[in-house]
Amino acid sequence: MIDGIDHYWIWIALGLFLAVLELLVPGVYLIWLAVAALVTGALAFVLPFGWPLEIVSFVSLSLIAVYSARRYLNDKPIVSSDPLLNQRGGRMVGETALVVQPIESGSGRVRLGDSEWIARGPDTPAGQRVRISGNDGAILLVEPIPLIAETKAQDTDGTPADG
Question: Taking every annotated instance into account, which residue ranges of this chain make up the domain NfeD-like C-terminal (predicted)?
Fold first, then answer.
């Protein structure tokens, strides 16, 4: 007992503090320490065995909890329902954009929606439509879209069309 406070209350308070801190700080490690502190508090309530064994119990339970969770999450990772949520450029792949500044020497600007983006790709004049094929950070990688009239003309010539 420390100045009238039982050991288990200190462990429970530490566990709750770590659980709240887990909500405020990004990461997934403090929750396992919180679990270890709460279990140590429960053990200290049931079996009052003194500070040295309580600390050994906390350290042991922390290691067991962290490594067990780590192994479990490596075996069964959490899969996002929207993996491109924070990758704006990745979400645009396959979309059609309008070239607003000619793509010359591999660089220009395109408009998609109400935004303009730096684009890289083959030389394309302003006013042409391009398809976004990827991104490099905030730079969109684009490729020209064959016009329907060109595709039909190639089909009637007997030469295969690029599809």
Answer: 91-144
